[in-house]
């Protein structure tokens, strides 16, 4: 009886600190580093990786999954995005093109082109256009039925990352540049400035409320920034994280769609849950054996997906081609990610 009580006590203690039962890995994982993952609205998960493959899994609410489809692309895949009909996956590629993969017909068609690899590829449902950002320092918006973009913007530097929520679009570039666009009635640039972070940025993620965004950098720091200048002067702040055993890059940030709290994932192999409003950490979890390259909540926030792969943050000398890659699913109950009452 005492042994049983002790085991139950330890289990409850670990659960309170985010030590959940093992997250479930998807089958048939990529064989090279995973660059991007994206959820459809009906819980299908797509990935893009350096083995030039797009893959799709169907994920159940308990975190289990089944491989449903894969498609070989002509070059490594830097980002994937779903069309809102859940039947098409867009992919930005290293060969300077973006392609659309029709899951019903298994056909692939080119829909965009840049003068350098396409790092950002996002379908914008509200305006029915595809947004692409490239290392050619340009941002383009495409009607996929036409050969020329419907809008194009010159960026201050190479495009590294971007996010879109409704009418808010935020693009992160080399040399710490952040461009903000208003998409209502057609894309219009709102601002362009260098972030307050001192080192190269890795990721941006928009607030679900569309009034701001979070930026993650290679120095293990996240900046919370608001779009409105008056709000920004009052409420902008930054904080250190993913520094328990050194300074690690923030590779990905994902906001919970219902609660507005968020997750960070880093090159230390850890993911953490945060509340920006109370400026508190909500939960932490055991580290993975390799960096987490990307992460994403599903449309309801009940499932959290993340990819474990080498992110090249320590250079080619630390690359191990035999190290396994994984995409994992973490079932996320509300009390784990919901803002805590004061």
Account of the protein in words:
This protein is 8% helix and 48% strand. It is mainly beta and 342 residues long. The strands form seven sheets. The chain has a four-stranded antiparallel beta sheet, with no helix packed on it. The longest helix is centred in the N-terminal third of the chain and has 15 residues, at 2-16.
How is this fold's topology laid out?
Elements: H1 2-16, E1 24-25, E2 34-39, E3 44-49, E4 53-59, E5 65-72, E6 77-82, E7 88-93, E8 97-102, E9 107-113, E10 118-124, E11 129-134, E12 138-142, E13 151-154, E14 159-165, E15 168-173, E16 177-182, E17 188-194, E18 201-206, E19 212-217, E20 221-226, H2 229-235, E21 237-240, E22 250-255, E23 262-266, E24 271-275, E25 280-284, E26 292-297, E27 303-308, E28 326-331, H3 334-337
Antiparallel strand pairs: 1-28, 2-3, 3-4, 4-5, 6-7, 7-8, 8-9, 10-11, 11-12, 12-13, 14-15, 15-16, 16-17, 18-19, 19-20, 20-21, 22-23, 23-24, 24-25, 26-27, 27-28
Could you provide a short overview of the structure?
This protein is mainly beta and 342 residues long.
- What's the overall geometry? globular
Characterize the largest beta sheet: strand count, sense, and whether it forms a barrel: 4 strands, antiparallel
Mean pLDDT: 93
| Separate helix tally | 3
Strand order of the largest sheet: 1-28-27-26
Structural class: mainly beta
What is the rounded Rg? 20 Å
Flag low-confidence runs.
1-19
What labels describe this entry?
342 residues; mainly beta; four-stranded antiparallel β-sheet; 8% helix; 48% strand; globular
